[in-house]
Every structure is written in structure tokens, then in C-alpha cells.
Design goal:
Blueprint lengths: L5 H12 L13 H14 L1 H4 L31 H10 L14 H17 L6
Helix pairs in contact: 2-5, 4-5
Length: 127
């Protein structure tokens, strides 16, 4: 006996089983992609993390816990581009860091590369 919902259930199961983007699927890091990440950072991240990523954005004082200093803090999910990409997609439980699934994967990769570049240029970054 087939239900009219059977095709919907099959599609939903296939979508759930589909692999998420992995590090192996990361786009090549290019200056254009990093620049896209920088623009996205200004729009989506700077209000909490500050314009330079130091955790001192205009909203930071109102948040508990305060946003991470992206230059020096240890990242719970790891600080490699693929790990930052994953954190952007999942958020950080117990903080104001929400999942940014509304951003395209390309934009999240740009953000991941931009943030890792910020850390690499910082004198005391914890790798």
C-alpha cells in the first residue's frame, strides 16, 4: 500500500543522507574568495567580533559570554579553514554565535579563509 507521502519521504531521506560539504570539497583559496570573506565579515561578524576580529564589536559588551577574540582565542571547533567553515555552519552552543547556514557555502569558505588569514597575521594566534 503506497501513500501519497511516500515520494516526499524518499526525497527527505535522500537529502538527510547526502554528505555535507567536507574539507575535501573546499574551494581553492583565492584573493577574490578571501576578499568576499572580508566583505561578509564586515556585514555578518564585525558587530560582535569587532572590525579587526578582536572580540570588541559594538554588540560585544551585551553578550555573555563575550565574543571570541578571533586573533588569539583557542577555537572550540579548531582553527583550520575546514574547521572554521564547520563552525560557521553549526554555530557555537552556549554562545551568541549562531549557525550561518543562510550564507552560501562559498561565502562561508571565504569567511573561513579570511578569519584564518587574520589569525596567521596576529602575533599571538593559537593555532
Amino acid at each position: 500500500m503506497h501513500s501519497k507521502w511516500m515520494p516526499t519521504a524518499v526525497v527527505a531521506a535522500a537529502l538527510l543522507a547526502a554528505p555535507a560539504t567536507r574539507a575535501a570539497d573546499a574551494p581553492k583559496k583565492t584573493p577574490q574568495l578571501v576578499e568576499k570573506g572580508k566583505a561578509s565579515f564586515t556585514t555578518n561578524c564585525a558587530s560582535c567580533h569587532g572590525p579587526k576580529g578582536e572580540g570588541d564589536g559594538v554588540a560585544a559588551a551585551a553578550l555573555k559570554p563575550r565574543p571570541a577574540n578571533l586573533l588569539t582565542a583557542s577555537f572550540k571547533g579548531g582553527a583550520k579553514p575546514a574547521q572554521v567553515f564547520e563552525t560557521l555552519g553549526k554555530g557555537v552552543p552556549g554562545t551568541a554565535m549562531v549557525a550561518f547556514k543562510h550564507l552560501s557555502e562559498e561565502e562561508r569558505w571565504g569567511l573561513a579563509y579570511y578569519v584564518t588569514d587574520l589569525r596567521a597575521k596576529a602575533p599571538k594566534a593559537k593555532k
